[in-house]
Write the structure tokens for this entry.
Amino acid sequence: MEQNKLETMYQHLGVSPRVYAYGEAVLRALAPRFAAIDQTAEYNQGKVLAAMQKNRVNATHFAATTGYGYDDAGRDNLERVYADVFHTEAALVRPQITCGTHALAVALSANLLPGDELLSPVGAPYDTLEEVIGIRESQCSLKEYGVTYAQADLRPDGSFDYDAIRSAIHERTRLITIQRSKGYATRPSFSVDQIGELIAFCKSVKPDVKVMVDNCYGEFVEPMEPSDVGADMVVGSLIKNPGGGLAPIGGYICGTEECIRRCAYRLSAPGLGQEVGANLGLMPAFYQGLFLSPTVVAGALKGAVFAANLYEPLGFPCVPGAAEPRHDIIQAVTLGSAEAMSAFCRGIQAAAPVDSYVTPEPWAMPGYDAEVIMAAGAFVQGSSIELSADGPIRPPYAVYFQGGLTWYHAKLGILMSLQKLVDAGLASLPEGL
Ligand SMILES: *Cc1c(COP(=O)(O)O)cnc(C)c1O
């Protein structure tokens, strides 16, 4: 196909020839990065396939159940598949887990008792966990139940402060929580290797301490997961990476049998645990979504790498930087003003397959302490493995961009975001295009 034809299609979609030309110039240099991303996806596809084959996935596992859901073969087998993918003893993968925050709240409250202390050795946790923990006052927080919280901040360069961590660990420290992805912060995300070193350090200080990793947005970005390097639990949302865009709800916790049993008792009821929980006909989406996830994550990663390489040369600081390795699918772009955040989000929205005609506006969101602007035109509401951008309206006015079920859609969204910034006079392209 002639390059012209593609350029005409982009023009039809709203991308000017100059923005398109700039994007193509950026892309030419990214071929080796994209090849490495594809290779990780290929490896992870093998890992998922091997787990499905080992557990003899077949059509009976896709049948719907209702009511109590006793002896739900599809659900029980999916949990074995997840356990094998994450190399853990057990897994809890349920539509009854409503979101990532819920999965994390279950994992924490199941494994902490009154008098215990929770430690974050990586600075402040994700916004919504502040209320779960009780950092911000909230009913039913861990704090209300007598669980205390301690935090060791990262050093200014984003590295672990081992001295501070050592002195924060004491007799009551029961559980350590490590967030893999930066979330709404401009710190670096951690590699699985870094997480492994941190876990080894914490366990050398206190051998019986349990470690939970908030794995949101990190699944399948690398060939290994935090559960391969010593985490007792890894936790995440099915409307992010591992749902592959098909899961319409759900969360997972993979880990040791001891931890997962407690999580199941907390999620349903003591004594019932994993025995109850009908699958409501969601098994085809959960299995197929997991199957597609490594490829979908690769597309999202290409989008993130493209965005950083497109925006950084125009003077917008990016985390991770254009040349930096990736440990999650999130790209933070610091735009410097509320207007620029709005323009960026308008571009992402305009590129969507769903709701492309609506205009995102800042809004107060439950669980967040500043107004948040969100752009998403998703098949699954709020899904952030689908192309989406969001960010709290507060300095440094950074948008957190993620997802894209296909690389081509991610590419269009990023080009459209730049188009809106250029149209509003908030970004200018290099000379000579
Ligand atoms: C998204 C996210 C959460 C919370 O997940 P929700 O599904 O939005 O409740 C927690 N931690 C991190 C790092 C996340 O990215």
